[in-house]
Amino acid sequence: MTINPAVGDEVEYAPDRVAIVTDIREDVVILRRPGYPEWPATDPKQLRVKRTRAQRIADVTPR
Q1: pLDDT of residue 62
Q2: Does residue 30 contact residue 21 with C-beta atoms inside 8 Å?
């Protein structure tokens, strides 16, 4: 099952390359990774969700 990326999700956009979805504007997925400016995903259908926003938050929230 493929999950469509949503804002806040961590996605793999190339082998071993991950970024965060910062916005979705008119079906254009905008990505960002530390130290780099935002950029539009060249092929949003090839993005693979590694962790959803909820999973990322749960990973840093103390229990």
Answers
A1: 76
A2: yes
Say what the pTM is. Answer: 0.88
Q: Average pLDDT of 42-61?
A: 92
Q: To which residue do tokens 């929230």 refer?
A: 61
pLDDT at 61: 76
CA distances from 29 to 44, 47, 57 (A): 6, 10, 21
Secondary structure string (H, E, C) spanning the chain? CCCCCCCCCEEEEECCEEEEEEEEECCEEEEECCCCCCEECCCHHHCEEEECHHHHHHHHCCC
